[in-house]
Specification:
- The structure is a single chain.
- By secondary structure, this protein is α/β, with parallel strands linked by helices.
- The protein folds into two domains: 195 residues, Rossmann fold (3-Layer(aba) Sandwich), CATH 3.40.50.300; 119 residues, no CATH class.
- Helix 11 runs antiparallel to helix 12.
- The radius of gyration is 22 Å and the shape is globular.
- The structure holds adenosine-5'-diphosphate and magnesium ion.
Length: 338
Amino acid sequence: MNPFVYNSPVRGKDFFNREAPVTKILKETVRGKSQGSIWITGERQIGKTSLLKHIQSLNDTFEDKVKPYGTDKSLDVAFIFGNVQGCENEDEFYNTLWQGLKDYFDFKLRKTNNGYQNFINAMTEVYIKRKHYIVFLIDEFDAFIETMSYKDAQVATNFLAKLSSLLQEVDEIDEGTKTFSCVFTANHDIKELLNQNHIDNRGSGLIVEALNLKWFTKSQVRGLADLYMRDDDFKFTNKEIDLCYKSTQGYPYFTQKMLSLMYDARKIITDDKQFRNTVKNEFGEMFKDTIEDWGGDKMPIRTLKKLMEMVKKMDLGRSFTAVVMKSLEIYLRTKLMP
Ligand SMILES: Nc1ncnc2c1ncn2[C@@H]1O[C@H](COP(=O)(O)OP(=O)(O)O)[C@@H](O)[C@H]1O
Ligand SMILES: [Mg+2]
């Protein structure tokens, strides 16, 4: 059976090499002196959801206590996941956090029709009564901000300002101390998101530590292949790993996809040259279709530029390279139009 995974976030043993970001997230939110928040930027299918789900899975083993800055309280930690991509307004956002808390703590609080009030009720329960510091893992945060500001940029600005102030203290719960942190994931870095949606940076004031999720290096691609093929009786040669890296530049989703193509092809093709041609062609076709499918409005400028750099270095074959470059240039030109 083909061991590679590319259709869903990876979990458990399949979660490969994110030690540095995990360490940074824990330090910033719960292990450091003051409890901060993090903004993780990364392209589509780079591994943002996998990373958040991995942090969420730490709930089973995490024993550190948190002393919120300025208090002598000692609290347990809970990592609470919520995907806010489909949220349309503030109420739905706070209800998503509420639901995450409810799923984890299984409390019996009545749900009101005010999302913010639900959030406050739940936070009071878990912070005061159950003595937990909360780290919210908020997936697809920029999609939510875009939806909100598409209707009204001022509403989005006000929402961000309110959230920033809650991250400092929640008057209804405990004045002068932090009660929760957030780990946001987004395709856009925060500056581009605010710019493109006409949100006033000073007005929103969100204070976050920035973290850019990286693609895999060549030696990590080797490591990933070996990890996933630990039960197989063959290994890819260094030349084959080179081919994978050259074609994907270590972009996590494409790396898994290419390794998967190579895995299937290796089982039926023995001739090296034929193997190379087959997988390069299949990969090029798939890459072109994927980029066309992802294109348009939703792709941040930073991603378009990064993909263009990537395509220049890739070894896709001339016909695919030209087609993909052309699509990317058109998307970029449209984005940059005044
Ligand atoms: N830590 C990882 N280890 C191995 N593969 C990964 C990892 N992170 C991402 N991937 C690959 O990327 C794909 C997309 O991951 P996902 O977490 O859904 O990305 P995102 O949320 O950024 O869109 C996965 O299906 C897998 O192929
Ligand atoms: Mg995701």
